[in-house]
Amino acid sequence: MELLEEVVFPLLGGGSPWGAEDATLLDFPSGKLALTTDSFVVQPLFFPGGDIGKLAVCGTVNDLAMRGAKPLFLTLGLILEEGLPLETLRRVLRSAANWAREAGVQIVAGDTKVVGRGQADGLYINTAGVGVVKEGLQVGISRAEPGDLLVINGYLGDHEVAVLSCRDGLELKVQVSSDCAPLSSLVETMLSAGRVHAMRDPTRGGLASVLTEMAVASAVALEIWEERVPVREEVRAACEVLGLDPFLMANEGKVVAAVHPDDADRILMAMRSHSLGGESAIIGEVREGRPGEVVLVTSLGSRRLLRMPSGEQFPRIC
Amino acid sequence: MKYVDEFRNPELSRRLIQAVLGLGKRMTVMEVCGTHTMAISRSGLRPLLAPAVDLLSGPGCPVCVTSEADIARAIALAELPDIILATFGDMMKVPGPQGTLLDAAARGAQVKVVYSPLEALKLAQQRPEKRVVFLGVGFETTAPAVAATLITAKEQNVFNFYVLSLHKMVPPALRALVEQEDFRVEGFILPGHVSAVIGTRPYIFLAEEYGIPCVITGFEPTDILKAIYLLLTMEEPAVEVEYTRAVRPEGNPKAVEMMERVFEPCGAEWRGLGRIDGSGMRIREEFSAHDASLWEVETPPVLGDKRCRCGDVLCGRIRPLDCPLFARTCTPESPVGPCMVSSEGTCASYYLYEEAH
Ligand code: SF4
After folding, report:
1. Residues A6 and A104 in one domain
2. CA nearest A316: which of B66, B357, B188, B63?
3. pLDDT on residue A64
4. What is the band of A4 on the pLDDT scale with cuts at 50, 70, 90?
């Protein structure tokens, strides 16, 4: 347990209730408790705009935020491949601690396991998170209503392109930083600006997956206007070179929300004035219609289905 | 940015669509390359152009044209002891007689997805106790990078790095295609990336011997639309380049030279087209120490799902929707044929982007 005591505690445990006990006891405010967990695997461990530590904190914070919860506590479990340099681990933990502070959450429990060489790709992280939802607030993927407008807080695909730009041999000469960020404060801003019905962060599987999930869960149809969807020019260029689709690219700091049409402008303005929402846009609308169907109006004016991809998309080889 | 204005200008695209429709002509056009298929499906061009052009997809998805026997061989290699099979991601779910590479991995084989042959070489250097076999699938697009990697492996004595070369050349396949009896395509949209390597010369026979106009183009809607406009208005069949920002008529002589240094032409089996002389790329004697095709492996007999019509899809004889399994038995989650697996596959493109079900 030297690893915990000598490396992990000093970096994460400062001031937190980590200790020798098997479980941590926490004071909890009133309201509904939100609980989530996720595991994080990324290669390389460090990429422009982030690293696996930041990702593991933001990912779970964002999952809590999507239910309208204020994130309070995280746990952090590490699976380390034998031979991982201690300095790498330290860098990752320092980053996790920084971003936890930034997001206003405490890391209150954790664990480390070391596995043999070849049994893990450097370092895997699991985080679980607890948050609190204000009494009466109801936000969820199944609550989008016909008439709602769909908003997003900025450019699609930055995270995936940033990670791809580190891979050997792809020769992707773009400089894009991952959008990895804790969304809790942006979400708070949105919630106080107006009625937000449904929210989801388009991570793996991209915007197309999230919209399909929302349409299915809320039993509504969605219409998306391609021309309004913000995609950075560098990301478009990278997608062209690699044959990838921005709508399927992973993001780590984006939120798509279905909001009441009367409040949409106010929410949009509030988002645009937040540091994580400068490029926010209204990208579509919730409709009655075939439940679960997402239609994209392409910039050329044709209409086609937007489907959930199956598994990862890989760069073209032809 | 200038880039936006030129290639991604929806206004220009809309004008081009009107121009194409305004010609009042009709043509059956084949887009050879899977990346074009995907781009066309994604932008929704097919239905918009339907009154003027019947856009068929061709044999330009490297994963799709790989024969079942070759897939069986790749899976058999992966299951040898002390092997790591490194492959492009799209190969993982292609069914062979022993299941897929994913199934092989579940049985304990070590299969690793890489994004480039260079990643596979690095893997070999990091894991000297293993033999790393890179599954070389692709056309003239990926072959130069694999050639470069083999040259490096030889120079640096990375003895545990091997390649199973299933690479194929596009022009011989196009000849085989146009020679087919029921071939009805009147114009070709030729691949952008392949042509960036080989240039225009290898396609000239299409125009000169068969009288088929050809345009090499890029992957944005405006590129594709310009190519179609050119095809419809060309007076004498020729091979023209619209994709001038990436393709020079002479191609990339350096890449060709590298490819020719490492590989030599051989016969190869194409799904749908059968065996085509001189369309494969075998690793030359000089690099035989890295040639995994020389290994003896036992492979089960190939069965093939007789219901899968990938062969017909790849030759433009049918569209995915004409296959009775499309979107019913065969989906990206449980693909019956490779055309539903690869992101460049015609069936996958149609499934993801084209039709409502
Ligand atoms: S839909 Fe499936 S079974 Fe039919 S041709 Fe395509 S890949 Fe083969």
Report:
1. yes
2. B63
3. 98
4. confident
Residues with CB under 6 A from ligand 1: B 308-310, 313, 320, 323, 325-326, 330, 336-337, 339-340, 347
A164/B115 CB distance under 8 A: yes
> Omega into A44 within 30° of 0, i.e. cis?
yes
Asked if the model's pLDDT at residue A32 lies above 50, the reply is: yes
Q: Residue A11: which residues within 8 A CB-CB, separation 6 or more?
A: A90, A93, A94, A97
Q: Say how far apart CA A181 and CA A178 lie, in whole Å.
A: 9
Whether B5 has a pLDDT exceeding 80, the answer reads no
Task: Using DSSP bridges, classify how beta strands A32-40 and A123-133 pair: parallel, antiparallel or unpaired.
Answer: antiparallel
B130 close to B82: Cβ distance less than 8 angstroms: yes
DSSP letters for A296-311: EE-TTS-EEE-----S
Distance CA A83, CA A117 (A): 7
Of B10, B122, B343, the CB nearest to A227: B10
| Segment A176-224, tens digit of pLDDT | 999 999 999 999 999 999 999 999 999 999 999 999 999 999 999 999 9
Fold of B5-61+180-241: Rossmann fold (3.40.50)
Global ipTM: 0.87
What residues does each domain of chain B span? 5-61+180-241, 63-169+252-294, 310-353
Backbone angles phi, psi at B347, to 5 degrees: -65, -40
- Domain boundaries, position A248: 149-305
The three-class DSSP label of residue B148 is helix
CATH number reported for the structural domain that contains residue A286 in this entry: 3.90.650.10
Ligand 1 atom nearest to B305, measured from its CA: 3
The pLDDT of residue A149 is 98
Instruction: Tell me what the mean pLDDT of segment A38-46 comes to.
Output: 95
Does B216 have pLDDT greater than 80?
yes
Average pLDDT over residues A3-28: 74
Q: In this structure, what token pair is assigned to residue A294?
A: 């997402």
Instruction: Tell me the CATH number at A87.
Output: 3.30.1330.10
